[in-house]
Amino acid sequence: MNPMIQNQLPKKGAKVVVAMSGGVDSSVAAGWLAKNGYNVIGISLQLHDMAEKIDNEFGTCCSLSDLNDARRVAEVLDIPFYVNNMETAFNEAVIDDFVQEYLNGRTPNPCVRCNEKVKFKKLMDWALDLGADFLATGHYATVQWNSNLNRHELHKGGDDGKDQSYFLFTMKEAELARTLFPVGSFEKPVVRALAQEYGLRVANKPDSQEICFVQGKSYKDFIEERVPAEVLRPGNFVNADGKILGQHAGLHQYTVGQRKGIQLNSLDPLYVLALNAKSNEVVVGPETALFRKSAIVKNVSWINEVNISSSTKAHAKIRYRSKESPVEISPIDESSVEVKFEIPQRAITPGQAMVFYEGSRTLGGGWIESLSVH
Amino acid sequence: MIYADYNATTPLSEGARNWINQAQELWGNPSSSHKVGRKSLELLNKSREAVASLVGVNPNDLVFTSGGSEANTMALLGTAFEIGQGFRLLTSKVEHSSIRDTLPLIEKLGGIVQYIPINPDGQICLAELEKLLGQFRPHLVSLMTANNETGVVFPIPQILELCEKHSAQLHTDAVQGLGKLDSSFYRGAHLVSISAHKIYGPKGAGALLTRKGIKLVSTHYGGSQEIKRRGGTENVLGIAGFGGAAEEMLSQSTPIDLKAIRDHFEKRLAHGLDGISVQGIKEPRIPNTSNIRFKEIASEVLLGALDLDGICISAGSACSSGSISPSHVLLGMGMSEAEAKECVRFSWGRSSSIETVELVAQKVIAHVTRIRARNGAKEISK
Fold first, then answer.
1. Cβ <8 Å between B304 and A83
2. Which domains does chain B have, with CATH numbers?
């Protein structure tokens, strides 16, 4: 079995830093590399103060017990293991942005930010400074060498239900050339079986479900701990025509498409259609109004292409768990595009990433700014 | 493998192993009055004598502890309980974390803590000390003999003289001084902490030396061991190892010239690299320690790169996750966090030689040069 069958497999003995979270995927990534003749160095990132979470046995990503799991895996695999404190970078690039986005009436995706600013930036730098040839992670995605075009491409993972290429759209070719996804083409049961085979105690550890830094509480509580109450002030529920329907408890409690938490007298169920940070209004309406065919996407980055100059056909995902759908992408300026869907999409949400595909290849993506007027 | 982290810990010496082997056969409780117990007690007393003679003190003035940290905590808390409310402690911000982390408890018990300023070379000013002794009138002054991270030595004899003039007691954490400095330099202090595993003894054994007549409230209860100053059945294995290590150190005829080795290392680096600085280089230092800042190089990276080459050094202090936090010692000397994160410590010992430091210097120069080149480091000023 060769997980990187479509990749140019690096030479045996290549020095690879593996980002180890203590979960089964990154543990097996490290294990596969170690068992296949690579010179593996394990590293865990300390992204926030963990001491308080020690009792959270088998908790989700980033807690101290996860770190101990990662350390135990490294011990079993007999590879060097380090813990790197990237709290400052994580706070600035991920947590501050996460909170600010909610205050802006948007729904952020911190995992993409973490990959972009921390893992494939700070950690990649660290790995290369250490003298490593590659950085490996446990993502379900593949890096493929296209020999016709002489380039590295990012493709979907082998497990349809687990594909994580969505979270990696900000990567560039140069980074892909230095990146390995050892479990990327496996299906999850194979990964768990390998964990058993390698004798790793995390083989049956549950997948992480939550965003690592808000585990065990709601986003609402997380934000309320960090933002003064006067900023999170109540405002109005309005309908699409601007008519005031009632009072909401703070913009940060809502996201587009949400039905819960809207206590208004209405015959038909009401859904959040939009959040207006300027007026502190939550726009609500019927579910049918959630279906839209176009959006403006900003800060677009392309993995292989420099830019697009004319309208391009592709497929797009509007959030991690949405199905991809055919689109036409039209450039607006250097870093913004308008995206038109053939099929209306439910709850296109500002702040979420829109990621473009051509077959299994990830073209790139950007951040949903607003719904366009079309 | 090249080990250059002797300030963290040292390997077991032959002497320590031999005495530990003896202790393995002598499993009796030293407090028992029967023969099996007496045999254990005999080894304990032999160890006490060996350690006492290494330091040059009366064996009765020595209280065995679980290590340097316990000795430090015992000195501070024991005095704080003795004095009670209003206990005044003068210390510094570069002390070992066992001192630093005891201070909140001292304050909670009604004590008052003041700090003597530390200059950028890691040194105190004696005139400043005298001023504080007069104004603050501390009951206890706690200042370390030699700093574990920079190696900088405080002038303990002069500090002691000033303390006595102002009727203050002096505690000194001499963990890094033991075996590296002549003991007459620090043993005169009223309370002295030492540890076995920095002198090629086992971890888990240390001692507090208490000058005759010094009153301390016990912080450990469980029996009349250590003349009721530290209750609990003694760690005979560890204490025997301490004794064996002390005896071996005392009988060493020609200890290696660590200063020559350390100085060669620092000279080689200064010759091969720009943008480096040695902390406390202008001050007296214990002969084995170099704390060096490499501009633009994260200490975690250099530590990792050297570890992968089989060279063991250290940086900062490990937090509960195992990641490295900037050293509070360097911050206490006025360094910024960013600067402190570029400092690593090399500490040499028995296995070191001119050849090993030469090899380490070459590796360090190669890594620093490579990393700076990769990052296109701008002009690095000397």
1. no
2. 14-251 (3.40.640.10), 256-374 (3.90.1150.10)
